[in-house]
Amino acid sequence: MASLNPVQFIREVRQEVSRVTWPSRKETLITTGLVLALSTVAAIFFLVVDKLIQLAMSLLFGFG
Asked: Please, what's the b/e burial string for 16-39 (b: 16 or more CB within 10 A of its CB; e: otherwise)?
């Protein structure tokens, strides 16, 4: 069974965090902008597809 030593745990966590390559502010802003832009494109795409399906159902069945 593993020992539960909080001091050792904190040391290991700090050691692992020091190995992480953190993104720069510029990289973070660019990726955030891309996520927002692609989310907007996806939302518009699904809106258009939904409206086309609604139009097709309206023409086929006379309601909708």
From this structure: eeeeeeeeeeeeeeeeeeeeeeee
Angle among Cα 34, 36, 41 to the nearest 5 degrees reads 90
Q: Using DSSP, state whether 6 is helix, strand or coil.
A: helix
Q: What's the per-residue H, E or C state across 8-62? A: HHHHHHHHHHHHCCCCCHHHHHHHHHHHHHHHHHHHHHHHHHHHHHHHHHHHHHC
Whether the Cβ atoms of residue 11 and residue 18 lie closer than 8 Å to each other? no
Enclosing H/E stretch for 63: none
Q: Is the pLDDT of residue 64 over 60?
A: no
Mean pLDDT of 8-25: 93
